[in-house]
Amino acid sequence: MKEIIKHVALATIVLVTLLLLLGKIVNADNENRPEEAQIAAVEYAGSGCKNDAVTANISEDFGTLQINFPSFSAQLGPGFSKGDHRKFCQVVLDIRHSEGWQYSLSNVDFILSSKLDRDINAEVGGLFYFQGDEAEELKHLFSGPVEFTLHAKVPLQTNWSSCEKTRALNIKGIVKVGLKDPENNEGRGELTLIGPTTFGIEWRRCE
């Protein structure tokens, strides 16, 4: 019986220790993010999103921002109009959070699908900035002939949001396809952004 009591007591001590350690980990995690963060408003415009509703949401731990661009693709070739070769969508987000905090975008995670004939180029790009600040530009180029589906996660170095006042976060996505030789109007190309685009969010306390 004494041995059983000893084992139970030891198990209780281990359990309490684990709970205390877990509590410290949770508290440390909470210290690295605000108590509240939400998207107060979403506005969007552009040839890539004019006919569809763009949605955005922040994860429960405020660690990621997800934006969904429905039907966001650029196409070139027979059957497509001149304006189809370049599409863009600019999203303006009003993100409200607890006072005393600022945030920045740390990375962008997206999926692309492309099919390009010979002598066809494609480009996916983005601009990320807070209203009134200098934009960070992201650009990737592809050349045909090629066919692929690509999942990419790219680091970003955007400015931090202002501690003094709320400034809108601007995110502009661009996809386009074109001819290597403008005199050669043959060939087809397509570049599509598939599913949601996810951004990592970093938080820090204002100094």
Provide structural commentary.
This protein folds into 2 domains: 1-31; 36-205, Jelly Rolls (Sandwich), CATH 2.60.120. The chain is 14% helix and 52% strand. The protein has one helix at residues 2-30, and strands spanning 37-45, 55-58, 64-68, 72-76, 86-97, 101-116, 120-130, 136-143, 146-155, 169-179, 189-205. Strands 2, 3, 4, 6, 9 and 11 form a 6-stranded antiparallel β-sheet that branches. Strands 1-5-10-7-8 form a 5-stranded antiparallel β-sheet, with no helix packed on it. β7 and β8 form a beta hairpin. The longest helix has 29 residues, at 2-30. It starts with a helix and ends with a strand.
Question: Any idea how many domains?
Answer: 2
The SSE string, one letter per element, is HEEEEEEEEEEE
Radius of gyration: 24 Å
**CATH top level label of the largest domain:** Mainly Beta
Major sheet: 6 strands, antiparallel
Which structural class is indicated by helix and strand composition? Answer: mainly beta
- The end-to-end distance, rounded to whole angstroms, is 59 Å
Give the CATH architecture of the largest domain.
Answer: Sandwich
Fraction of residues in H or I helices? 10-25%
- By DSSP (H or I, 4+ residues per run), the number of helices equals 1
According to CATH, what is the topology of the largest domain? Jelly Rolls
- Unreliably modeled segments: 4-12, 14-28
Strand coverage percent: over 45%
Number of strands: 11
Coarse morphology: elongated
